[in-house]
Amino acid sequence: MLKINNLHVKLEEEDKQILKGLSLEVPAGQVHAIMGPNGSGKSTLSYVLSGRDGYEITEGEATLDGESLLDMEPEERAAAGLFLAFQYPVEIPGVGNMTFLRTAVNAQRKARGEEELSSAEFLKQIREKARNLDIDAEMLKRPVNVGFSGGEKKRNEILQMAMLAPRMCIMDETDSGLDVDAMRLVADGVNALRGPDRSFLVITHYQRLLNHIQPDVVHIMSNGRIVKSGGPDLALQIEDEGYGDLLAEAG
Amino acid sequence: MTQTPDLDVREGVDRETVETVQNMGSYKYGWDTEIEMDYAPKGLNEDIVRLISQKNEEPEWMTEWRLEAFRRWQTMSEPKWAMLNYPVIDYQDQYYYARPKSMEIKPKSLDEVDPKLLATYEKLGIPLKEQMILAGVEGADAAPAEGRKVAVDAVFDSVSVGTTFKDELAKAGVIFCSISEAIREHPELVKKYLGSVVPQSDNFFATLNSAVFSDGSFVYVPPGVRCPMELSTYFRINAENTGQFERTLIIADKGSYVSYLEGCTAPQRDTNQLHAAVVEIVVLEDAEVKYSTVQNWFPGDENGKGGIYNFVTKRADCREARAKVMWTQVETGSAITWKYPSCILRGDESQGEFYSIAIANNWQQADTGTKMVHLGKNTRSRIVSKGISAGQAQNTYRGLVSMHPRATNSRNYTQCDSLLIGDKCGAHTVPYIEVKNTSSRVEHEATTSKVDDDQLFYCRSRGMDEEEAVALVVNGFCRDVLQALPMEFAMEAQSLVAISLEGSVG
Ligand SMILES: Nc1ncnc2c1ncn2[C@@H]1O[C@H](COP(=O)(O)OP(=O)(O)O)[C@@H](O)[C@H]1O
Ligand SMILES: [Mg+2]
Question: Distance, CA A15 to ligand 1 centroid (Å)?
């Protein structure tokens, strides 16, 4: 599904290299986790994959189902099935959450040459998915992320993910700032979406999310690179021992 | 979990906006109608003023009123205080009267109107048949299928083509007709109120209008009557080199209510055209008037060529106690906009509101705002202005809030937000505040922001293209004002916001 090969990325405005030869492959149907200390470049990776401005790719490539992602506009990547749940979801004053989602859903359908979702069908779907994430009608009406608590913002990202039904889901620290109940809701939301045609790249700081979302592979990222990959045990090891030894051993 | 119908409709509206952006070219009203016209000779003098009066079959007092204004105008000069930059206007190089030949003998009803004229309005989407308007229009499939009637007065260049639902309105006692007809048929009302809100000598453009106005709409709502439908006037400039000078007079008698809509378009031409209108509203005791405008005159092309010069004087006089007026405007068109719909809050406890969206793209210049003049005790006013600038445009909010010594315990709240798209445009806020008593309070909040790259990226990462993203963010910015508009206008306004910002990013 997602293949990243020797990716080098620097900031456009500054002479600062952030990703330094990152390689990663997430096959269809698998859940991969990326863990790593703050500042190792995890968010940068997620932004570069989804097409944010401000970065320069100096070497390497990234493909989704064999198609080069890096030449596409952000909306083309979305239509191709890529989704990023933001670490810091953006507020859009005055734009109803529901309007936003409906515009997004139909934009993607249009880009793929599909019929628009009727409003009845859209309402049915969003109500059901919102209920599962414990998002009430009030929150659907409120402007996108404005005045949302940290947990509400994160659940809202997962609602968007559920409605857009992407094939490649990247989640950037969706668990930070969530209490135990909210984390369970998010994890249930993600698990409900798991399937043979859908893959996940779950960026997280803590092992606890991975108790709820069982990863197939865990990668440790440091200083712009994947320094170690392994099974779910690797996350447990980090939880117990911290990054210190592991990074020393790798570096 | 229940969904309010209102929300569902608005959902549909926004979706339509997005479609509109994708499906439309730029200014979609830029075509013209080929029709034989009668023109008055070019230029302006007393003979032309007399000719206009004669064409409208006006009584002597009206001719004199016009001449008085014309003589006054000759002593006046164009105001220069606005932040507007345009070449000198040669007032002798214009036509002041243009009428379709077929209108020479006044059609008695719409059935007799030249089919070409009717087709023009049909193409513009203006219903001149007396039909129900479905509040939901196409595309908004979740809309309640509840029929609504809107009466229309259609003004084509210098003349009113026809007015719909006149009979049904007459049954309720409401007079809705062209101003030229009102001058002939209801002289006592016209004499009493014309010029009573905007005097002949008010300002250069209003005085010019007083001399040469050719047509416009007239509304009288009798005491205690709630007008049974929305009233609207649709102005269309078609003829080349012809100014449009319409005059609207609305009188809401004691305890009455009326909601009035105004729309306007013009063909795309590379010369500038002059438009100088006057709107006067008289609101008596306990009456309420809502006046909504979607102004979409041709704004000029992306190089700043052509477009309408729009100099408009609009004023409402809340003449008696508890009178209420609400102006809502969406200004997306015109090369130059000079316009300050105002409220004179004369009656005690009277209220004035002004909601405005002004968009200036490419080389457009807008200097617009309002005046809230508090004369009566316990008067209230509220101003919400959203200015959006893109391209090389300049957008100025200019507003006056004045609390007179007698206007004790009065309040004003002003919120004035500017949004910039790109870095070659400008936004300016010029508030004038005068408080001449100690018990009144004026609150003013102003913000200026840029369309945020993070917001655009967030939208795009969800699948919207850049123009959809901008339209969505800008519509969000304007939401408070869009919600003040009647439903049909809100839809039109949303798509206009999107269309007028085309090409502003990327
Ligand atoms: N726009 C930016 N400007 C300056 N520094 C940046 C920018 N984006 C990322 N960085 C820097 O790049 C490094 C990686 O950041 P980030 O990708 O956010 O890491 P993580 O998500 O792993 O904590 C950090 O040192 C961060 O300060
Ligand atoms: Mg991060």
Answer: 13
